[in-house]
Specification:
This protein is α+β, with helices and mostly antiparallel strands. The chain has helices at residues 2-34, 173-178, and strands at residues 38-42, 46-50, 55-61, 64-70, 77-80, 87-90, 96-101, 104-108, 113-115, 118-120, 127-129, 136-138, 162-168, 184-192, 217-221. A hairpin with a 2-residue loop joins β9 (113-115) and β10 (118-120). Keywords: Developmental protein, Disulfide bond, Glycoprotein, Heparin-binding, Secreted, Sensory transduction, Signal, Wnt signaling pathway.
């Protein structure tokens, strides 16, 4: 009886060794493909160190991890060069496609918007998405309008029937530095001037009075 048990255990052990040998052969075959650019490579974990111009990319499969040497890091990673090894480091945000550092995103994945290095489902309050991009930019809220200027025509305040008067409003310093698109910052409108300047001779007034036109206001969009 003991002899039968011994033979059975021997058979099981032989089968386990055969299975391990087959797996090692398969791993070795795959190792040749995954060890391109490696300086040091492992049958179990792939590349461990790479040539100085390449980056070491490590990914996990369950409890195991594998290494591969690449020229450029894939989306969701950024390259960090070191004294001993260059590594592909994963961006912290899963919605980030390309990042400058672990916490600063430069491009978000589809359906996300970029604002100050972070990715959002929609632009935060006080910002709008720029046309043609998925980047959020702060909106411009100008200050109050100034008083209307004097009515002038070619820098003169008299001697003409109609002139133009203007008013402006200021832009916050932060919006000006960031180049934020702003609404109208300058308005102009027609105005009635003194036809005769002081000291000039006056001509007889016409009997009939022409109908005055309603002043027209024009807006100029700021940049």
């Amino acid at each position: 009886m003991q002899w039968i048990i011994f033979m059975l255990l021997l058979f099981i052990s032989s089968m386990e060794m055969l299975t391990q040998n087959r797996w090692k052969k398969q791993a070795s075959a795959g190792l040749l493909e995954n060890c391109t650019g490696c300086v040091l490579c492992s049958e179990d974990n792939g590349c461990i160190t790479c040539h100085h111009r390449l980056f070491l990319l490590i990914w996990r499969d369950g409890i195991r991890q594998y290494g591969m040497c690449v020229h450029t890091c894939p989306p969701g990673y950024f390259g960090v060069r070191g004294l001993e090894v260059n590594r592909c480091t994963k961006c912290r945000s899963p919605s980030c496609e390309s990042c400058f550092s672990r916490d600063f995103c430069m491009k978000c994945k589809d359906k996300f918007y970029l604002y100050k290095g972070q990715c959002f489902r929609q632009c935060p309050a006080g910002t709008v998405a720029q046309p043609g991009t998925r980047e959020c930019q702060e909106t411009c809220e100008p200050g109050p309008w100034s008083e209307w200027s004097a009515c002038t025509h070619e820098s003169r305040t008299c001697g003409c029937r109609w002139g133009v008067e203007t008013r402006v409003r200021e832009v916050p310093e932060a919006a000006r530095e960031e180049g934020t698109a702003c609404p109208a910052l300058l308005e102009t409108r027609r105005c009635r001037m003194k036809k005769h300047c002081p000291g000039e001779k006056t001509e007889p007034k016409n009997k009939g009075k022409k109908r005055q036109k309603k002043p027209k206001t024009e807006r100029h969009t700021g940049t």
